[in-house]
User: What shape does this take?
Amino acid sequence: MGIRLQGTDGIRGPIQKHLPPTEHPVKWYLQTGEITPEFFQLYTYSTCSLLRNFGLTDISNSIVVGWDSRDSSGAFNNAAMLGILQAGLTPCSVGILPTPAVALHMLSTQAAAAIVLTASHNPADQNGIKIFLGSSGLKLFPSDDEALTKFLLEQPWPLSNSSILSVYCDESEAAKTDFIAHLLQNKDSEMILDQPESINIITDSAFGACQVIVQHFPKSWRIFQHYNADCSDEINRFSGVADLEGTRWLSEQHLRNSIWKNHKALHQLFRNLQKNPKILHLSWIFDGDGDRCFILVADSSRQGIHVLSGDALMLLISSKSELKSPKSSMTTQYIFNTIESDLEASSRILGKEFDLRQCPVGDKWLLLEAFDSRIKTLKELIPKLSQANVNLIDELQNTLVEMRKLGRPGAFELTRLWRNLLKEIPEANQFSTDFVLGGEESGHVILPGIHHKQLVFLGNGPLVAFKATEILYKRWLHKPEEFFKNIEALQPQGTHFTLPIYYVVKEKLLEPRFRDELCQIIQKLANNLYPEFTQDWINLAEDNELLMLQLKDKDTLKISIFIRNSGTEDKLSLYTQGNGISDEALEEFSREIYWHLLCHCKNRNSTWYQSEAQIMVELLNASPTISWPENPVIKSRLLHEMRNKQKFVTGDSENLVLTEIGKRYAQFLSDDAAVNMVGI
Assistant: This one.
């Protein structure tokens, strides 16, 4: 396996506005984790060079470029477009737009690729890149990332050829108009837009890209109140989906908690409920780049807020019989979710008329499943194929099968074969497939949609919001007395613990000795706590970093434990899921595994870790002063990750109290000689 830069979805990291002289942008990133404008320039140049090498610019030399709101100076955005120009291709800017809008414009214009400059739900001090390939709509897989990284490291810096950023297309208005038309085309009805007196919707753009779309909705759509817009420095701060992950219910008391007390959209939703409890109050919660969505439902009977995450939205949408496309002749239709989805939610989907399949975490794997479905069904749906066309389909299908068998799909090569197929069979992208829905708990939901007569698959937060709202509103009108009970029933009832560890050495999880030791600990705990269940270690060919154990009662999956490095942040996470299992026992199980990870995986060289360790020890010793970083943004992020994510402390920054796990960890740090060496 070669060096890879990309994680779960694209590449992300803290920004550094200037690359030190004599440094190479990629080597600097590998050394520090920092993204500079020069990194963006070299990255887009190299991506475009590989597109040319694979013959993917023969139809168009245009590259659609869009971004979220975080780069107020434009330095990173301009650098990315400069890299495209230096590769001999034409950047077409669509400005600030949600990620799905950028990808759709790529498909509309037959551009060679789309590059989205975003760090998604990550803080404002970070930036990143997501890439879609033209025609196929696929994102880059690990094997593509290895090839791209190798190419990047081979490039001299500075680039020998220079160009002035002047020759580019501005297609922002066309892309925006096209995206709103796409949303309207794929809605079920105008119902929710025509009933402003009985429904109120708050949108929370997380100060990100969705603000552009919501602000340009037709003025006749009087049902929207828009929050958390127009502040690039605050993207994802006290807003959006990130703080709500893992939460299913919020009471008024919860809203006074430090985690949500500054979340304006939540508080406005609650005020709206109190002002008029007789209408339906919803909130659409997006992430910074708009490919994820949660729906909040204000409950007048319990005076609180239901949080419908990706799992709940999939249960809601899969209840629609309309998911079964009338154009499809498929006897079996599939719903896909990722391995992080709630076990009880998955079992409920299995009880419907669809077959459920699972894939690794990340929407790129859901897109691959949709692409796979498209290829498998072509010969059934296209009449009177010539032998030459059958051969083209077979070549693509056989290549994909072999790639997946090896766990190494390649988006560049698959896109090349798909483009060759489309030249001979232009209608191949118009037929429905046996893929009807895909999603993950974090809010990515993949709905097949029609765009300029083409079938497209994208994680599209606004479209999911429309679809879910239409279903909810119909249920509200049909049986209002049962509505909130039905909403409550959507919430998966399985146990689901997600325990993150920040500032880690990601390579630790790949060390054979440590991995074996970890497996033994997990197995011993499982034998002691659940001797009646059989153990099954799961290997996913396409995610060889994953460590995953399933416990079964006969054929029923009862517990799933897996550990994986984040592909978007400097952390690893332990996920423990139970179906009909005691919360207390499962939490005990999780905590012991978590403790072993916590003691062995932290990166002692990380300044973030050193700050965290020092603060923890000071709290343990009841120090009168706490060594918070002077930078308020860094302080806020550190506090958020210590308190809200790792749950080491409670309270505000001036009155912090160690939790039980926090006390244990602080004592470990205090006793650890290696930590003391950094000055604690």
In short: The CA atoms of residues 232 and 487 lie 34 Å apart. Residues 673-680 have pLDDT under 50 and may be disordered. The chain has four domains: 11-171, 179-309+463-490, 316-460, 495-676.
